[in-house]
Design brief:
By secondary structure, this protein is an alpha/beta fold. 20% of the residues lie in helices and 23% in strands. The chain has 3 helices and 8 strands; from the N terminus they run E-E-E-H-E-H-E-E-E-H-E. A 6-stranded parallel β-sheet has the order 6-5-4-3-7-8, with helices on both faces. Strands 1-2 form a two-stranded antiparallel ribbon. The radius of gyration is 16 Å and the shape is globular. 34% of the residues are buried.
Length: 184
């Protein structure tokens, strides 16, 4: 995605947190810096240029447990995959781990509630830090809170390069298929 005067960003199209989207709409989850972000100056009517598809951020039906890992705004890509999986293969086993730097940045609770209602039994939230940590948010890095991976697992991970790399190493150590999505 490119806005005039700003660097290109790699994003994954997704759904709104409530799972909806409209024809001719493109929805993205974008990480923003609370200290000031180049996106702060954008206008609603400002032209945007989209190029795609690129990357590996799509749902793949098939066997094996689906292990979905999202760091920060990487949740957008993982949410689209999780939602598709629940419709295409509702009985497929799924585990989800979602992390953020701060517990207050876990913005996706409405989406996680929907996944729980559709039968996803293992959803883990974690944060590296946070002044206010809800009781359901674990402390520490996301890679420390994954389920024990198996060779038959299909792992999708989206987020910052260090989280994606750590999950790739864990998946490779057991021979699991892993599809990485680095979010700028």
């Amino acid at each position: 995605m490119t806005f005039a005067g700003l660097p290109t960003r790699t994003l994954s199209p997704t759904l709104r947190l409530d799972g909806t989207t409209e024809i001719n709409d493109v929805v993205f989850h974008v990480a923003r810096d609370p200290e000031g972000d180049p996106l702060d100056g954008l206008r609603l009517d400002q032209p945007v240029r989209l190029k795609g598809p690129v990357g590996r951020g799509q749902y793949r039906p098939g066997g094996g447990r689906l292990v979905l890992v999202a760091a920060g705004a990487g949740f957008g890509a993982i949410w689209a995959i999780a939602r598709a999986a629940r419709y295409v293969e509702p009985a497929r086993e799924m585990a989800l781990a979602v992390g953020a730097r701060d517990a207050l940045d876990l913005y996706m609770r409405e989406s996680l509630d929907w996944l729980r209602r559709t039968g996803v039994g293992r959803i883990v939230l974690c944060a590296d830090r946070g002044r206010q940590r809800p009781p359901d948010v674990r402390s520490g890095p996301l890679s420390a809170h994954l389920p024990s991976l198996r060779a038959t697992d299909v792992v999708h991970v989206a987020g910052d390069v260090s989280t994606v790399g750590a999950v790739q190493v864990l998946a490779a150590s057991v021979g699991a298929r892993c599809y990485p999505i680095v979010i700028d």
